[in-house]
Design goal:
Number of strands: 23
CATH superfamily of the largest domain: P-loop containing nucleotide triphosphate hydrolases
CATH topology of the largest domain: Rossmann fold
Strand content: 25-35%
Number of domains: 3
Bound molecules: guanosine-5'-triphosphate, magnesium ion, zinc ion
Number of helices: 11
Distance between the termini: 16 Å
């Protein structure tokens, strides 16, 4: 894969400047991802008294009968994606930890600085005890993804069992203002969002507004507001801030969102959050019957350095399924695949063909995977092609059924009136028109690419991408511009047509 293409996956290049040294970051990721993957593989070898989960059988699978609530599916994988959004340090990762038990802060630089840098993923099972002796909100609770689907309620005076009602996947976004590109990639897969607002700061803070605008652009409608850190404020301050939040959400997509006071740290009202997730977030409408398609969000080589050739495992891709059902044993194609340049400088690509060897949702093994959450796909692809996130932004799916690969796009677009995510704007806040030959960043699905504007006319623009993207007409995209060294959201658009890239057979 060419250097150019490797670069396009890392649009948080700002992170390298500001949050970690250039030398450390790639090393850091690779070794820690390997450590994480090895830990998962190790645990598969020596299962630690795993709960009995529902069986999946490819022989009896009928995709027409599957729903995002089918017991054999939600026993093992998440089927609803919930983003956590909001200003830096307002408690996004802490609330994910309180609900799922999973700490999404994993990387060395993240731990040192106590901030989220990469998208975090964590699955949680949400349970409800329908027995009348068990009253709300305690009748709702949550556990990790590998927990049994039913267990007795142990609250004194209660009868009956907690039954699995939802299996959700949290997409934990970074709140730091320079990581907006990462947040936008996450926003593309969200079905709903938890908007965290710290109770001990005035509302809104810059990324409170910018993130809300971003999910609005992505047409996301289901938002639950969590007024967090309630343990740090007096009742009267909390009530005053509640009014501030109400005024802030007026006229936005979140205008009628519930506002729940919580302490993510002390786990206060987390059961109410579970109840609202169950009652207020509709089950997403999914397409299980079309040919399967997964957007790659991470990829790695799980082999230890110096591994014997016969022991080598194929490349692993982690991603989100957009449509269809992916099965163990299935023949797959990855697009654009291997990207390179011809002698004359034009870009070409060669799709990769392989086979699904294993499917994993966190630590749960799957026979088939449906849309929702992050799915790990073990393949027979040469692991050097998947190491260090090299396949990020590519699409994996049924051979011969993937969308086209574009290098030039014609889009219709809208610009925001003002920049939302910066504090001291003075007169820099007004968003200027697009100009010919300027370089923007586009986020299409979970991938980002540089986009050089070659023509603008009213609300139409033609852009040349820095790296090819596998996508389709009608797909929406977010537009960002570099302002004071950082990418800021300026608007959004939709693909109207494009110039395809030649594919090598
Ligand atoms: N007192 C109190 N502190 C909290 C609460 N929730 C989170 N914190 C603290 O606030 C800090 C930030 O929490 P995080 O969960 O990392 O915040 P975040 O929104 O994920 O931060 P970024 O991802 O970097 O934007 C941590 O030190 C938490 O311990 C809470 O309910 N009460
Ligand atoms: Mg965080
Ligand atoms: Zn109970």
């Amino acid at each position: 894969m060419s250097e150019d293409n490797k670069k396009h996956v890392n649009f948080d290049d700002d992170v390298d400047d500001d949050l970690s040294s250039n030398e450390e970051e790639p090393e850091d990721n690779e070794s820690e991802l390997i450590a994480e993957q090895n830990r998962v593989l190790q645990q598969q070898k020596e299962p630690v008294k795993k709960a009995k989960l529902a069986d999946q059988d490819l022989k009896t699978l009928n995709v027409n009968e599957l729903t995002p609530l089918s017991p054999q599916v939600i026993s093992r994988q998440a089927t609803i994606n919930i983003g956590t959004i909001g200003h830096v340090a307002h408690g996004k990762s802490t609330v994910v930890k309180s609900i799922s038990g999973v700490r999404t802060i994993r990387f060395k630089t993240e731990m040192v600085r106590n901030i989220t840098i990469k998208l975090g993923y964590a699955n949680a099972k949400i349970y409800h005890n329908p027995n009348p002796t068990c009253s709300r909100p305690q009748s709702y609770t949550s556990r990790g993804s590998g927990h049994a689907d039913s267990f007795p309620c142990d609250i004194p005076g209660c009868e009956g069992n907690y039954e699995l009602v939802r299996h959700v996947s949290f997409v934990d976004c970074p709140g730091h203002d320079i990581l907006m590109a990462t947040m936008l990639n996450g926003a593309a897969v969200m079905d709903a969002a938890l908007l965290l607002i710290a109770g001990n700061e005035s509302c809104p803070q810059p990324q409170t507004s910018e993130h809300l605008a971003a999910v609005e652009i992505m047409k996301l409608k289901h938002i639950i507001i969590l007024q967090n850190k309630i343990d740090l404020v007096r009742e009267q301050e909390a009530i005053t801030q509640h009014g501030e939040i109400k005024r802030f959400i007026e006229g936005t997509v979140a205008h009628d969102a519930p506002i729940i006071p919580i302490s993510a740290q002390l786990k206060y009202n987390i059961d109410v959050v579970c109840e609202y997730i169950t009652k207020k977030i509709p089950i997403p409408v999914r397409d299980f019957t079309s040919s399967p398609r997964l957007i790659v969000i991470r990829s790695f080589d799980v082999n230890k350095p110096g591994e014997q050739v016969e022991e080598l495992k194929g490349g692993v891709a982690g991603g989100s399924i957009l449509q269809g059902v992916l099965r163990v044993g299935q023949e797959i194609e990855v697009r654009p695949g291997i990207v390179s340049k011809n002698a004359d400088g034009t870009i070409k690509c060669k799709p990769i063909f392989s086979k699904v060897v294993t499917l994993l949702a966190e630590e749960n093994e799957l026979q088939y995977a449906v849309p929702g959450g992050l799915i790990g796909v073990g393949t027979k692809i040469d692991p050097t092609l998947t190491r260090a996130d090299r396949l990020v932004g590519q699409v994996l799916g049924e051979v011969g059924h993937l969308p086209k690969i574009y290098i030039e796009l014609e889009i219709s677009y809208f610009l925001l009136r003002r920049l939302l995510g910066v504090r001291d704007l003075e007169n820099k806040g007004k968003i200027q028109k697009l100009t010919k030959s300027e370089m923007l960043m586009v986020n299409i699905g979970s991938t980002s690419a540089g986009a050089r504007i070659v023509a603008v006319k009213a609300d139409l623009a033609k852009v040349v991408l820095t790296s090819p993207v596998c996508t389709q007409v009608g797909e929406k995209l977010a537009l960002s511009r570099r302002v004071d060294k950082h990418w800021r959201l300026i608007g959004w658009g939709q693909i109207r047509k494009g110039k395809e890239l030649a594919v090598e057979e």
